[in-house]
Known about the structure:
InterPro entries: HLH_DNA-bd_sf (IPR036638), Spo0E-like (IPR018540), Spo0E-like_phosphatase (IPR053028), Spo0E-like_sf (IPR037208). GO terms for molecular function: protein dimerization activity. This protein is an all-alpha fold. It has one domain (about 10-79): Irregular (MYOD Basic-Helix-Loop-Helix Domain, subunit B), CATH 4.10.280.10. It has helices at about 10-30, 35-79.
Amino acid sequence: MEPYSKNKSELETEIKLMRERMIDCAKHYGLTDEKTIRCSQELDRLMLVYQRLFHEQKVNDDVFLWYERVREEKMAYTF
Length: 79
């Protein structure tokens, strides 16, 4: 997957627009049409990029905070 250079807000906007485009394609061409499927695949790709960039960072931050809390608790018992 190539690096993504847009910020969170821009990516959220791009996801919203692609979702609307996919819905329009489905209404006009049907759910199984190639255009609808391509839009769906692009939406999936954008959502995966979003999740990797912004959700995984939160998970990593949460794990780090948990680790620091556990480490501090263990240090408190060693004295």
